[in-house]
Amino acid sequence: MATVGLIAVGHIDYVGENAQKLLRDSVKNLSDKGINVIWKDEIATDSKRARTLAKDIIKSDVDSVILFLSTWIESPVAMSVVREIEHIPFAVWGSPMFRDKGNLTSTGSFVSFAMFTGSLKRLGYNFKPLLGTPEDENTIKEALIFCQAASAYQALKISTVGLVGYTSMSIYPGTFDHLLMRKKIGPEIEQMDTYTLINKMKEFKDEDCQDVIQYLKKSARIMPDVSMEDLLTVSKMYLAMKKICQEKDFKAINVKCQYELSKEFGMVACVPLSILAEDFIVAACEGDILVTVSMLLMHYLSGNITAYADIININEDGTIKLSPCGFIPFSLGEGDQYNKEIRNFMPGVGFKGIQNSFVFKPGRVTILRLVEDIGNYHIIYTTGEGLPTKLRQGYMPALDVKIDGSIEKMIDYFAGQHYALCYGDLSKEVEELSRILGIECVRI
Fold this sequence. Notes:
Layout: E1 3-9, H1 17-32, E2 36-44, H2 47-58, E3 64-69, H3 75-85, E4 90-94, E5 98-100, E6 103-105, H4 109-123, E7 128-131, H5 137-157, E8 160-164, H6 178-185, E9 188-192, H7 194-201, H8 210-219, E10 221-222, H9 228-248, E11 250-255, H10 260-265, H11 270-277, E12 282-285, H12 289-302, E13 307-314, E14 320-323, E15 341-344, E16 354-357, E17 363-372, E18 377-387, E19 399-403, H13 407-412, E20 418-423, H14 427-437, E21 440-443
Parallel strand pairs: 1-2, 1-3, 3-4, 4-7, 8-9, 8-11, 10-15, 11-12, 18-21
Antiparallel strand pairs: 5-6, 13-14, 13-20, 14-19, 15-16, 17-18, 17-20, 18-19
Helix pairs in contact: 2-3, 5-12, 5-14, 7-9, 9-11
């Protein structure tokens, strides 16, 4: 749940019933939408009290702050709040005139908003402007998006992503600047070798795997050519991954598969990672940290399980084809267990092990990639409609997407083959998080 501090300021000559009602209605309407609002039923009218309120609310470990201009203000009062909260995401909320007993009335909030936001822009502050009454649905929606994006921003700063191995197959876009990621986007990246994962698997015995195997049998049809030995191996790999994530407090993990696991060890990581994703631990493979962080930020924005896939084709009908190898979270697949298969890995590529073999469910999706530039980042994203799709080459998970934007523009902005995938339209949330992060956001 996103937590926001709400601090109201005003002018002693204007504070009255209408100003108090605006304040209380704003808190109620945000709370009714699931936001945890930290506030005091008070409108500060001098700088000293405004500073005290701001300091008290900041102590509550809020994700963000909304400065509520309840009436006409004197600028130093509002600025006293800003100087205390400028290190975290903040919004400035003003109210236009409204009806009171049938008459159009004003507390002076609109004028304060025009005056004070202009001053903040002049100073270069990065803040969210909110202009509307607490009863205005669009204003509340914008406030909710701000709160959720600020919560994601804060969550990214305290998250650790596990990286087992490094980027697979020398994929240049999968490489990253560790320190730049920590400073500009937030997550810490902790790297470990494939040996650590394989060694952790040895801690689990066959009897420890029975619940995992039963889960797989309930989630998909296991093809007859899949051996019990392989089921035990993927179960131990999943249990090892999960234990590592618990011990290290990883919010996400990326496991390099090719070629250490897929050829040398003899078991791809597709199925274990697909199970792990159902535990709401963001999971991916091929060592592409940038797409993993893309998945993580969409997970924080939506609260949903996320996936990723390669953009593998532009179809004749103008749709794009997204397809991972054998990784797909079970809950994101189309249909029930009888529409989903676990089978030996697709022949002909030289990889060993078992994979998930079912397609993504149709639905509205957001497709996104965080891109590392020289010294900074930008985000590219698009939205679209996921369509009923067939397996790629008869084996691999896939989703055909009719994107809302231009195929030509998407090609122009290619920055890698991997894209994070999340169900739902996260356009506004992605744009708001990009604003808070201070990075460019390109909508395809």
